[in-house]
Amino acid sequence: MNAVSQDVLGRPEVLKLIQADKPAPGPTEVLVRVEATSLNPTDWKTRATGGMVGQPPFVLGYDVSGVVEASGIGQALYRPGDEVFGMLKYPQGHGSFAEYVTAPSRHFVRKPAGVDHVQAAAIPLAGLTAWQALVDVADVREGQRVLIHAAAGGVGHLAVQIAKARGAHVIGTASAAKHDFLRGLGADELVDYRTEDFAEVVRDVDVVIDTVGGEYGPRSLRTLRRGGTIVSLVLSLLDRGVHAETVAELGIRSETMLVEPDHAAMRALAALMEAGRLRAEIAAVLPLAESAKAHELGETNRTTGKIVLTVPH
């Protein structure tokens, strides 16, 4: 099968199309013919540094939308021909930049009939990250105020929609050029991080979703009301110079999380998609063979939404 791999760490040009063995599903696994996959920041960071994956060679990619082709023993959810989408285990289960993948059947759910593979491929990792941060960790409820950083990004723009579906009042940070887009997704208030200091203008927030890192987390403490929660998707606050005593004195809860495959959450995301309450903004669609170009585009950090790779067969 075709796959995109690399022998060394480095810039996008290290990526190359290779021939690899088609995998076989193990017990409770499915073999999925990948129709589309999408990029996430972890992909280009791992390509350049190895990240939590280690040294190459490796095939990157976590998002999958495709068709079940075969099953391992004990797999009872799907039949050949079923269209599914989901996420491979993060970080060690990478490999969706390929024609075929295998994974436990419960890492996938059925793709809604009215959603194409491009749209479905853009959702899993970013959507699960947003869902797990907002719902599982922060338990966002109706009427709460939620601050989402980089609200037009891959995770951010899905988090805006999920928070709105939970009945929250959503505040987002984004450049002014993206404000109309975010209002269209339901954002209630927007802060242009280029001209305003969100820490000076945002107050009494119940939940902060920090997708940026750096000083965003420590500065966000000033926006939280006592009893509020900050969920970091990068380094913890303690790794950014904030002392545990400070967090305790402020009366807030600080959590750091990595995304996990999650059958129940994927079903919830699929239901929102089917109801027209969750959609991914597609910044670009490129064929698998142009993965290097996709990485270059992603690394500009200026795209709105997700970059999708289609996989020809």
Commentary on this structure:
The chain is of the alpha/beta class and 313 residues long. Helix content is 27%, strand content 26%. The strands form 3 sheets. Strands 3, 4, 5, 6, 7, 14 and 15 form a 7-stranded mixed sheet that branches. Helix 10 (291-298) links the parallel strand 14 and strand 15. Helix 3 (124-137) packs across helix 4 (154-165).
Shape call: globular
Low-confidence stretches: none
Largest sheet: 7 strands, mixed
Strand content: 25-35%
Structural class: alpha/beta
How many strand elements?
A: 15
User: What gap, in angstroms, lies between the N and C termini?
Assistant: 9 Å
The run of helices and strands is EEEHEEEEHHEHEHEHEHEHEHEHE
The number of distinct helices, counting runs of at least 4 residues, comes to 10
Radius of gyration: 19 Å
Mean pLDDT: 95
Percent range of helical residues: 25-40%
Give me some keywords for this one.
313 residues; alpha/beta; seven-stranded mixed sheet; six-stranded parallel sheet; 10 helices; 15 strands; 27% helix; 26% strand; globular
